[in-house]
Amino acid sequence: MKASKIKETRGDRIIDVVNVCLLGAVLITALYPLLYVTSASLSDPMEVLNGNLVLLPRGFNTEAYREIFKSKSITTGYVNTIRYTFFGVLTNLCMTVACAYPLSQKDLYGRNVLTLVFAFTMFFNGGLVPTYLIVRSLGLINSMWALILPGSISMWNMIIMRTFFSNNIPYELHESAYIDGCSDIRMLTYIVLPLSAPILAVMVVFYGVSHWNSYFSALVYLTERQKYPLQLVLREILITDQAALASGDSQSVYDMMMMAEKMKYAVIVVASVPVLMLYPFAQRYFVKGVMIGAIKG
């Protein structure tokens, strides 16, 4: 017997059309800036400054990208950002798991009080000056760890991971492992973490994007240009126009503005590529991890 087909009403068709229009508008809103920046990086700077660029490149050239890869400061900044992001995400994951897993255990005495204390720090913190004084007293100024340790754990991400552990790792699994003589460390390493790929992927994306886009901490704590991350180098390029306007030589002003205009869009594209490449690999875990970790419980 053929399955009966549900008849689509006029109201359903109207809702479908409205949804398509709304989602199309959201897509255009999100996609146009990416396409514009990419086209601007491949266009003649004068065309961009004159406002002649709409979507497709005008006066196609790749000189900006050649200048980027010839620039020692940009290459060094790129390497620094990769290093800071790698060690930062690794530290974040270790700290978040080490905090979230014990709080997810029902037999932990005072876990609700501890969770409340941790949640309190989401709304109140010491501020920039006390944090700077602590970092300086620890001797971390002008080091990689000054960018990593002060923000080594996010309470929001920790609560999401704790909720995931509580609702998706059966307590009976813990009991059976303990009966077989499994310690807490082995339980976490060989059982819990392999079953937590979705939430770990979400944390990698959250923490990775945060470290990759961060520049303020480097601006405060780093004193040597050789240690600047890519975002701080990009910031210098973006403010080159202002420095050029303060110059008295008109030819120098013109040359600096053209160089800055050529490079700033290209640097944005180069800086965004690794993050854009990260999402497709984590996409199949992303929605599942966020929904399970944030809604259940």
| N-to-C SSE string, H for helix and E for strand | HHHHHHHHHHHHHHH
Number of helices: 15
- Terminal CA distance: 43 Å
Which shape, going by the Cα principal axes? globular
Give the CATH architecture of the largest domain: Orthogonal Bundle
**CATH H-level superfamily title of the largest domain:** MetI-like
Beta-strand percent range: under 5%
Q: How many discrete domains?
A: 2
- Count of extended strands: 0
Helix content: over 70%
Outline the biggest β-sheet.
none
What is the top-level CATH class of the largest domain? Mainly Alpha
Defining key terms:
297 residues; mainly alpha; MetI-like fold; 15 helices; 73% helix; disordered C terminus
